[in-house]
Write a structure and sequence with these properties.
CATH class of the largest domain: Alpha Beta
Shape: elongated
Helix content: 40-55%
CATH superfamily of the largest domain: Periplasmic binding protein-like II
Strand order of the largest sheet: 4-3-5-12-6
Order of helices and strands: HHHHEEHEHEHEEEEHEHEHEEH
CATH architecture of the largest domain: 3-Layer(aba) Sandwich
Structural class: alpha/beta
Strand content: 15-25%
Radius of gyration: 25 Å
Number of domains: 3
Largest sheet: 5 strands, mixed
Oligomer: single chain
C-alpha cells in the first residue's frame, strides 16, 4: 500500500527530489552523487530513503546502470514539476521583493481565448515584467487545475463541475455562438439559413456532454431533426480550421469571438444561421479561499470591463 500523504511529506526532502532528477539524467549513483554534492554511499542511502518513503522500488539495478521502473518514471516526473514550481516561487518572491513583475498562470476554454488574450495583452503592457503561463483546455480540465493550484485563474464554466462549491466565480459575459465554414462555402452569401439547410453537412463538434455540444444537440432536437451521425470531435481550433480549409462540406460551431477573429483573418466564413438556445456564460473562476494577487485583481478588472463594453455595444 502506498504510504499516506502525511508520511511522505514528513520524510521527503528537497535533496531527494534533486537526486531523483540527477539519477534520471545520469542513470548512475556516481554521476548523480557528484551533481548533488554527495558521496556514492550517501547517494545510495538517500535513494533507499526515497524508495522507503514511497513504499516501492523506483530503479532497477542493471548492467547498463539504473533504469527507472514505472513508479520511478512517475516519481521523476513529479520531482521535475516540483522543481519547476519552486523555480516559479523563487521568481515570484524576487518580483515581490523588487516590487515589480510576478507570474500568472491563466486558463481559458476555446471560445473565451480571444477575450482573455486581449486582457492579458493589456496586463502585459501595464506590467511589462510580468510572466504568463496560458492554458487552453476544457472547463472540466481547467477547474481541476485550479483546484490543484496549477492555475491561478481561468475563464470557463463551473456548471460542468460536480463540486462547484470549491470555486469562486464571477460572471463575465454571455456566450454567443456562430457556425463557421470554408471561406468559399456555397451558402455563405445566403440571406439566412435554417439548421435544416446544414443537416447533411459534416459537423465538427465538441465531445458528448460538453456545453457547446449539448446546445447543438438541443438545437437539432427543437428543429425536429436527427443529430448528425458522422461527426469529427475536437476541442482544437487549429484542427477545426484545418478541416474547414480542406473540406468545403464541413461546418463547425464556435463562439462568435472566435468566429469573428478567424473571419477577420480570412480563414473561414461565418454562415447566416442564428442559434435559438442560450449557452452558459463565461465565468472568471478561482479556487475559493485563495488569496488574489494584484495581477489577478488587475486581470479581473480588465475582463469585467470588456464584458460590460460588449453588453453595451
Amino acid at each position: 500500500m502506498t504510504p499516506s500523504l502525511n508520511s511522505i511529506m514528513s520524510r521527503l526532502h528537497a535533496r531527494h527530489l534533486r537526486l531523483l532528477i540527477e539519477l534520471d539524467e545520469h542513470r548512475s549513483l556516481l554521476g548523480a552523487a557528484s551533481s548533488v554534492g554527495l558521496t556514492q554511499p550517501g547517494a545510495s542511502k538517500a535513494l533507499q530513503e526515497i524508495e522507503t518513503t514511497f513504499g516501492t522500488v523506483l530503479f532497477n539495478r542493471t548492467n547498463r546502470g539504473l533504469e527507472p521502473t514505472a513508479a520511478g518514471h512517475c516519481a521523476i516526473r513529479y520531482a521535475r514539476l516540483l522543481q519547476t514550481d519552486i523555480a516559479n516561487l523563487r521568481h515570484d518572491l524576487d518580483a515581490i521583493l523588487r516590487g515589480v513583475g510576478g507570474r500568472l498562470a491563466v486558463g481559458a476554454i476555446m471560445g473565451a481565448v480571444p477575450l482573455l488574450m486581449k486582457a492579458v495583452s493589456q496586463l502585459a503592457s501595464i506590467q511589462p515584467q510580468m510572466s504568463f503561463e496560458i492554458i487552453e483546455d476544457t472547463s472540466q480540465s481547467l477547474l481541476t487545475q485550479i483546484e490543484s493550484g496549477r492555475l491561478d485563474i481561468a475563464l470557463c464554466r463551473t456548471s460542468v463541475s460536480n463540486t462547484p462549491q470549491l470555486f469562486a466565480s464571477t460572471f463575465v459575459q454571455d456566450e454567443t455562438l456562430a457556425v463557421i465554414a470554408n471561406i468559399d462555402h456555397p451558402l455563405k452569401h445566403a440571406p439566412s439559413l435554417s439548421l435544416a439547410d446544414l443537416a447533411e453537412s459534416r459537423w465538427i463538434v465538441y465531445r458528448a456532454n460538453m456545453p457547446m455540444r449539448v446546445q447543438l444537440e438541443r438545437e437539432f432536437h427543437d428543429a425536429g431533426l436527427r443529430f448528425p451521425l458522422h461527426l469529427v470531435e475536437t476541442t482544437s481550433i487549429l484542427a477545426t480550421l484545418s478541416l474547414l480549409q480542406n473540406r468545403p462540406d464541413f461546418v463547425a460551431l464556435v463562439s462568435i469571438d472566435v468566429a469573428r477573429q478567424c473571419a477577420m483573418n480570412q480563414q473561414v466564413s461565418i454562415l447566416p444561421l442564428s442559434m435559438g438556445s442560450v449557452s452558459d456564460p463565461y465565468e472568471l473562476v478561482t479556487r475559493k479561499g485563495s488569496q488574489a494577487t494584484p495581477a489577478m485583481d488587475t486581470l479581473t478588472e480588465l475582463l469585467l470591463l470588456q464584458g460590460r463594453q460588449r453588453c453595451d455595444s
